[in-house]
Design a protein that fits this description.
Elements lengths: L1 H19 L3 H37 L7 E2 L16 H5 L2 E5 L3 E7 L7 E8 L10 H21 L10 E7 L2 E7 L6 H10 L6 H20 L4 E3 L8 E3 L5 E3 L6 E3 L6 E2 L12 H6 L1 E2 L1 H17 L6 H5 L5 H9 L18 H14 L10 H9 L4
Antiparallel strand pairs: 1-5, 2-3, 3-4, 4-6, 5-6, 7-10, 8-9, 11-12
């Protein structure tokens, strides 16, 4: 508003100055100046009228083009029409809530009881006047994450990766449709194990470890450009009906060209306790950062402890990984094994997995194994 008043003030001063100075040349200048001002005003008004729908198109994805289907499990687009009904969405069972939005559980119409999970990514709607610099940065980050998840997950298939079934764009949000994993996440499972409501024996744990390693190798070695997950944690490892691991949540994933060795990010990403130490210093996320995160996951599977446990918050140890190193190098590394697993005859296997976790979480990323090496080491563990 202040800028507008300043412009108007200068305009009036210019007009008065030209009127007070006699002479035909000044009258011509005044006429041309007035014509120019009118043209500028009209074009500015026109641009402002056009800018708002353009901004809305960028922010809201433009015209609703309907769902993009990536899997034959969804027979026709009409099966997802219920996602246009806000009342129907709010009546669904909410199973999870994350940084980008909520996750619901629903039955896929016309599928004889097939259950799906629907991630609702809320997209803030702002006018040009309301869009502050910080709002713009936040919006751009969310949009990058949405596009990343859609472009990457929609086209990759592997037994240990959770496939994206469909993407449904809406004016104020995006719906990402996945298969529902009835056994929840690995983190959920550990929570239930601690409460005594579920079990997770060693054979199931080593199967999960081998599955995650296989999925990670596929992302790192078999994709062009290769993919870095950037947030590999128990919360992002889902378990299907057969307790097979499915790596999920590629909202933070990045495609990494083979010609480069890292991706640089201006925003800190990942989950505390699983982030490689070099990332804090360089903000360069490499495949070896994923390996570090996977090493922490391996340690969780063996120890039954999470980096967020009170044991590491209130104890004398600095953190989970340093505690792991201390125990692994001690005279009695078996003390790190989850007490629920002791006495079942697999302690030697557990110590081997603990050693792999140790190598994956070394401070120097060059000393860590790659995902293929990790998968090979874990595949040697026979039951």
């Amino acid at each position: 508003m202040a800028v507008y008043l300043l412009i108007m003030s200068r305009t009036l001063n210019t007009v008065m100055g030209l009127l007070l100075i006699p002479g035909p040349d000044n009258k011509k200048k005044l006429i041309w100046w007035l014509l120019g001002s009118m043209a500028g005003t009209i074009s500015g008004f026109t641009f402002s009228r056009l800018f708002k729908p353009i901004l809305a198109a960028v922010m809201c994805g433009g015209k609703d083009k309907g769902p993009a289907i990536f899997s034959p499990l969804i027979k026709k687009k009409e099966d997802l029409a219920f996602l246009k009904n806000k009342e129907r969405i709010t009546s669904l069972e909410k199973i999870r809530e994350g940084g980008l939005g909520e996750v619901y559980k629903a039955e896929l119409p016309g599928s004889n009881g097939k259950m799906i999970s629907i991630k609702k990514i809320i997209q803030p709607h702002m006018s040009a006047a309301e869009l502050t610099r910080q709002d713009s940065k936040t919006l751009n980050k969310k949009m990058r994450q949405i596009r990343s998840e859609i472009n990457i997950v929609g086209h990759i298939r592997h037994p240990n990766l959770l496939p994206l079934l469909a993407h449904v764009p809406r004016p104020d949000c995006h719906y990402l449709v996945y298969e529902f994993m009835k056994n929840g996440s690995l983190q959920d499972r550990f929570g239930n194990v601690k409460q005594g409501t579920q079990e997770l024996d060693w054979l199931a744990r080593v199967k999960i470890a081998q599955g995650v390693a296989s999925g990670l190798e596929y992302l790192h070695m078999n994709q062009n450009p290769r993919i870095i997950h950037r947030d590999l944690t128990p919360a992002n490892i889902l378990l299907d009906d057969d307790m097979e691991a499915r790596i999920a949540d590629f909202g933070l994933a990045k495609a990494m060209p083979d010609a480069h060795t890292h991706m640089t990010s201006s925003n800190i990403v990942g989950t505390v306790g699983y982030i490689a130490p070099e990332y804090h210093q360089t903000l360069k996320f490499t495949d070896k950062c994923d390996i570090y995160s996977f090493g922490v996951v391996l340690a969780v599977l063996v120890t039954g402890k999470l980096p967020s446990d009170e044991f590491f918050q209130n104890g004398n140890e600095i953190g989970f990984v340093k505690w792991l190193r201390s125990v692994t190098n001690s005279e009695n590394p078996r003390q790190a094994i989850d007490s629920k697993l002791i006495g079942n005859g697999f302690e030697e296997q557990m110590l081997l997995v603990l050693k792999v976790a140790y190598f994956c979480t070394l401070d120097n990323p060059k000393e860590r194994p790659n995902s293929k090496d990790v998968r090979c080491m874990l595949s040697q563990i026979k039951h």
